[in-house]
Automatic annotation (TrEMBL):
The keyword Membrane applies. GO terms for cellular component: plasma membrane. It comes from the Bacteria. This is Inner membrane protein YbbJ. The chain crosses the membrane at residues 6-26, 33-53, 59-79. The keyword Membrane applies. Keywords: Membrane, Transmembrane, Transmembrane helix. InterPro entries: Membrane_assoc_protease.
Amino acid sequence: MEFIISHLIQALAVLGLVLLAIEVWVLGLSTFVLLFMGIGLLLTSLSMYIGWIPITWQWALIATTLYTLLTGAVLWPVFKRAQKTPEHKTVQSDLIGHSFFLPEDTAPDKPASYRFSGIEWRLITSEPLAKGTLVEVVSLQVGELFIRAKESDSGIN
């Protein structure tokens, strides 16, 4: 214990780095408590090294507590904002509105596939459609075309 007290600045810095390493590498920044505490310990160590506060364990405890709370108050809103889920925007593509004849029967529980532009697309529909039906793309996601039957009055694209 005497060794730690005589090397308090270094002990605080090492403990702060250990807590940061555990938070980042082991927990993957899932809890911010160790992050705030690690930063608080490093700031306390720096404050003692510069001479802003006396090198005693009492001041180390007080300063670490204050720096941890201050770090949490400053960084919490930033991390909270970063965790918000992004808005999902609808995909805009030239494929929307594309018409073609179904190569095979398809239904909501039995999606078909369609090869277009070198990509094998999975066809998703809300109603059963027979092979040879003229369909159009109403929306799309990665690897999936959402289709519906198209009225035969309009031309084929």
